[in-house]
Amino acid sequence: MPKKAQSGSHPRTVAVVLAGGSGQRIGLSTPKQLLKIAGKPILEHTLALFEEAPDVDEIVLMMNPGFVKDAEEIVRKAGFTKVSRVLPGGTSRNATTQLALDVLTDYDPTTKVLFHDAVRPLLSQRIIADCVKALDDYSAVDVAIPSSDTIIEVDDNDIITDVPRRSRLRRGQTPQGFRLGTIKDAYAKAWEDPAFEATDDCTVVLRYLPGTPIFVVPGDEHNMKVTQPVDIFIADKLFQLASSTTPEFGEEDYRQRLTGSTMVVFGGSYGIGAGVADLAEQYGARVFRYSRSATRTHVENPADVAAALAQAYSATGRIDYVVNTAGVLRIGRLDQTDEATIEEALRVNYLAPVHIAKASFPYLSRTRGQLLLYTSSSYTRGRADYSLYSSAKAATVNLTQALADEWAADGVRINCINPERTQTPMRTQAFGEEPAHTLLSAEKVARTSLDVLLSDLTGHVIDVRREDPVAASRQEAESTGKGSE
């Protein structure tokens, strides 16, 4: 039995994750919360948010009744220690909330309860913390963002009857937070109403406890709900902007995690590869650098790759991290490119990551390690004169996401770094000298790469930019939280 809040102690916070959806609205036989995004089920991403939240003490998961065992397996494999119960949900949102409240019957009325949609896997830690804090002063809290669209009201014949002022409108999100006593009282009154129907829990408080103020915490445009087929695509793309969620480790973390580990870096003689290798060695890793210029290692040659990995393993008895920054940049019209150049570009930029991945797997599966690949911002859209480079980098992204899925059960992680224009020898050779302030430093990319290698991420494409667009958009949303006309 989970612990109740003790008299006089800080109120306990319980997150209730609502995962009762069926997926029928997007034409699926499997609930959408079990679909995979960035290598993991949406449900796992969402549970991880509350598992990592320092203000959350316990998680109760309300699951689609037909998939409770699937959810239990996700919890078990991920090692979520805060999940106290996985229970079947009800036939409606309101019924599922009531079932969760029944579980919390013996809890102190001051307990803070956060109800969150399982299919909102991009919730920020800032929102969780703000909701918990707001419940110190209010007994009901909602999360919402300003509406950028004009909202119209229509009658049964689709004729406009009103256009409300946009400055007073918000788009609701979750979590919705309550003091346990408040939400229990609201539902007790609601069930006495034969016409009771509500799409969310704040509506229940608003209607049946009308004197209770409901505070609004500023939400986040990225805190989207996966409802329609296109949402799956959008959410997957938003996970690619993961620089804002990439854990940043401190000096002591680096030393503890890297000391005694073995890292193999292909393309480690200069640029980003050298930066990653230098940092890892600085914090105690045993690093083996391989490149065409320094060790005559040709990454496009499977035999060379196998020999390099075997050498590192023979010397240390383990391989924890494999990094591949090797690549060639060949610019020009495809119809004017000779066969030898085409062959080299494809072998180095795409077949090499394939060979490295295949050869690395046996070693990484023993250490539950990680493979780190690199793409380019040009992968998102092919550009003139970049046909070979862009297409190979797009293939590398797909390779990353596919292998994250394939290797998940083996505990092997694979991620891909997507740096914007970076000051490296390869770029200088292709474009000549450019103003330094317009380029990302190789050192910043190397530091982010190390953070990713030490993280639990898998299947992610991590953007590294001089300015973080996700953080910037969130700051803007928070600064304009009251909306405008």
UniProtKB/TrEMBL annotation:
The record marks R25, K32 as: Transition state stabilizer. Keywords: Isoprene biosynthesis, Nucleotidyltransferase, Transferase. GO terms for molecular function: 2-C-methyl-D-erythritol 4-phosphate cytidylyltransferase activity. InterPro entries: CDP-ribitol_syn (IPR012115), IspD (IPR001228), IspD/TarI (IPR034683), IspD/TarI_cytidylyltransf_bact (IPR050088), NAD(P)-bd_dom_sf (IPR036291), Nucleotide-diphossugar_trans (IPR029044), Sc_DH/Rdtase_CS (IPR020904), SDR_fam (IPR002347). It catalyses: 2-C-methyl-D-erythritol 4-phosphate + CTP + H(+) = 4-CDP-2-C-methyl-D-erythritol + diphosphate. One of its GO terms (biological process) is isopentenyl diphosphate biosynthetic process, methylerythritol 4-phosphate pathway. Its EC number is 2.7.7.60. The keyword Transferase applies. The record marks R166, K225 as: Positions MEP for the nucleophilic attack. It comes from the Bacteria. CDD domains: CDP-ME_synthetase, SDR_c. Pathway: Isoprenoid biosynthesis; isopentenyl diphosphate biosynthesis via DXP pathway; isopentenyl diphosphate from 1-deoxy-D-xylulose 5-phosphate: step 2/6. Pfam families: adh_short (PF00106), IspD (PF01128). Belongs to the IspD/TarI cytidylyltransferase family. IspD subfamily. HAMAP family: IspD. Catalyzes the formation of 4-diphosphocytidyl-2-C-methyl-D-erythritol from CTP and 2-C-methyl-D-erythritol 4-phosphate (MEP). This is 2-C-methyl-D-erythritol 4-phosphate cytidylyltransferase. It comes from Thermobifida cellulosilytica TB100. The gene is ispD.
